[in-house]
Amino acid sequence: MTQSVDSEVFSVYLKEGTHAIHDQLDRRVMQLNPFADNAHYQGFLRMQLRLHSAGEQVYHNQQINNLIPEIEQRSRLNAVLQDCADLAIPIELQQHDQQLGQLFKITDPYAGLGWLYTIEGSTLGAAMLLKHVKNSLGLSETYGARHMAAHSDGRATHWREFKAILDSLTLNDLQRKQALDAAKQAFYFVTETVDEIMVTGKKEVAG
Ligand code: HEM
């Protein structure tokens, strides 16, 4: 395997490569007032459902599990589904969102690493989002906002450990690029979803 000639640490490379789109995404999401009421929050949850449905295959990929032990147990898809049930999102909409997410076929392990970076990283921002959800909607880690719960080791510890594994991998430049492209793909998918569901979601879900 060719060693990377790019000396930037892998997790920093991913962070820098996705910084602009993350920035744009979180400003857009907050602009749409996702915690204004249950109908707005339903749109937010559906966005999470699409993202986690797309990423789920990566959590069960054997090659990825060989690289990142126990990643299978970190999947938050079931928590998102329970949140959707708590918020009474109609089952047809949930199925539609899952099907759309599942259209992604992420078979390349380096692409898988990129998707994982984006999904696992989203637990960091969730610390702040959880406060809003609790204050505005009265939801919690055990009802409606289960997918935002911190890992039992704590968010920061889990993220540090995850990044340490990423940074210990020996990847060549092409593999790093494949991972970055996939991390961006996950962000773009979410951004498109936000514009599709969170702008019109209120009408669609409540109407
Ligand atoms: C309104 C929505 C969001 C807000 C306000 C937000 C906010 C944040 C904040 C404050 C951090 C840094 C936390 C820290 O360093 O302790 C962070 C990290 C991150 N978020 Fe978000 N986020 C949002 C949505 C998302 C979504 C939907 C995704 C995935 C598609 C995502 C992916 C990430 C990633 C990958 C990181 C880790 C960056 C790194 O340090 O490498 N975020 N987010």
Q: How are the SSEs placed, and which strands pair?
A:
Layout: H1 10-31, H2 38-59, H3 62-67, H4 77-86, H5 91-102, H6 109-137, H7 155-168, H8 173-206
Helix pairs in contact: 1-8, 2-4, 2-5, 2-6, 2-8, 6-7, 6-8
Bound molecules: protoporphyrin IX containing FE.
Protoporphyrin IX containing FE binds next to helix 1, helix 6 and helix 8.
Core attributes:
207 residues; mainly alpha; Heme Oxygenase, Chain A; 8 helices; 0% strand; disordered N terminus; disordered C terminus; binds protoporphyrin IX containing FE
Structure characterization notes:
The chain has eight helices and no strands. The protein has 207 residues and is mostly helical. The protein has a single domain, classed as Heme oxygenase-like (Heme Oxygenase, Chain A, Up-down Bundle). Helix 2 runs antiparallel to helix 6 and helix 6 runs antiparallel to helix 7 (155-168). The termini are far apart. The model is unreliable at 1-5 and 201-207 (pLDDT under 50). The site of protoporphyrin IX containing FE (HEM) has 17 residues, from helix 1, helix 6 and helix 8.
